[in-house]
């Protein structure tokens, strides 16, 4: 769990620094930094999406996952959690608490480093991958908190639950997941990260939480539909 605890610590630290920057930086500087982060997020998402060896697996995963997520109303539930936290802990007049919580929770947890790093940490105690991710997340938390406020800090709890859960279940996951399964899951996650980039650039707001089931469906389809 050490890697996850380091990650939680960097998100909290970076987010706290970002809150001070929010007060110190003019709005126009905060906006241009967030737009730059949006462009980088798009690049990261596209790089991950290109990991796929079968675009039809990605397509089917997203469609099935989106239908399940809409059925289960995952975005509404995550927004409701964000609003509940906002009511309990909101500070100042920043009205983007829920957006900060939801956006950074997805960004920090959807990706191969969160999955593979957590498995490595659980199986062998090697937290190097999560340490690298922690540095990146800490910087991102600083930038996001400067623009979106307190909600970013609460994404640390999402990181703790998600990565910590994978670490505790690492041994069975390592036996089940193959490289093709991880690649297709990475590709699906990459497209979700592209969606985050579109939101940061204020191009299109998507109910990304509704696509979360696709991350579980992709490896199942990859196992049933192996690339020849």
Total beta strands:
0
Helix content: over 70%
Overall morphology:
globular
Tell me the structural class.
mainly alpha
Topology pattern, helix = H, strand = E = HHHHHHHHHHH
- Percent of residues in beta strands? under 5%
Alpha-carbon distance between the two ends: 37 Å
Strand count, sense and barrel status of the largest sheet are:
none
Uncertain segments are none
Number of domains: 1
Average pLDDT taken over every residue: 86
Total count of helical runs of at least 4 residues: 11
Radius of gyration over alpha carbons?
Answer: 17 Å
A few lines on this structure:
This protein has 228 residues and is an all-alpha fold. Helix content is 80%, strand content 0%.
What would your notes on this structure say?
The relative contact order is 0.23. The model has no long low-confidence stretch (mean pLDDT 86). The chain has helices at residues 2-24, 27-49, 55-72, 74-89, 97-109, 112-124, 128-148, 155-168, 170-176, 179-200, 213-224. Helix content is 80%, strand content 0%. The protein has one domain (2-224). The chain contains eleven helices and no strands. α6 (112-124) packs across α8.
């Amino acid at each position: 769990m050490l890697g996850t605890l380091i990650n939680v610590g960097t998100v909290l630290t970076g987010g706290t620094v970002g809150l001070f920057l929010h007060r110190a930086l003019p709005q126009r500087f905060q906006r241009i930094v967030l737009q730059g982060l949006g462009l980088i997020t798009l690049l990261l998402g596209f790089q991950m999406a290109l990991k796929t060896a079968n675009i039809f697996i990605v397509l089917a995963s997203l469609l099935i996952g989106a239908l399940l997520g809409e059925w289960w109303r995952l975005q509404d539930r995550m927004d409701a959690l964000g609003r509940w936290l906002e009511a309990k802990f909101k500070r100042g007049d920043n009205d983007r608490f829920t957006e900060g919580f939801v956006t950074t929770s997805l960004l920090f947890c959807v990706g191969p480093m969160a999955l593979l790093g957590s498995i490595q940490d659980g199986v062998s105690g090697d937290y190097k991958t999560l340490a690298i991710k922690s540095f990146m997340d800490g910087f991102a938390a600083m930038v996001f908190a400067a623009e979106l406020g307190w909600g970013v800090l609460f994404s640390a709890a999402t990181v703790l639950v998600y990565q910590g859960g994978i670490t505790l279940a690492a041994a069975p996951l390592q036996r089940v997941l193959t490289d093709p399964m991880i690649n297709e899951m990475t590709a699906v996650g990459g497209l979700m990260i592209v969606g985050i980039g579109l939101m940061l650039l204020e191009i299109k707001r998507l109910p990304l939480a509704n696509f979360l089931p696709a991350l579980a469906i992709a490896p199942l389809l990859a196992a049933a539909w192996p690339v020849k």
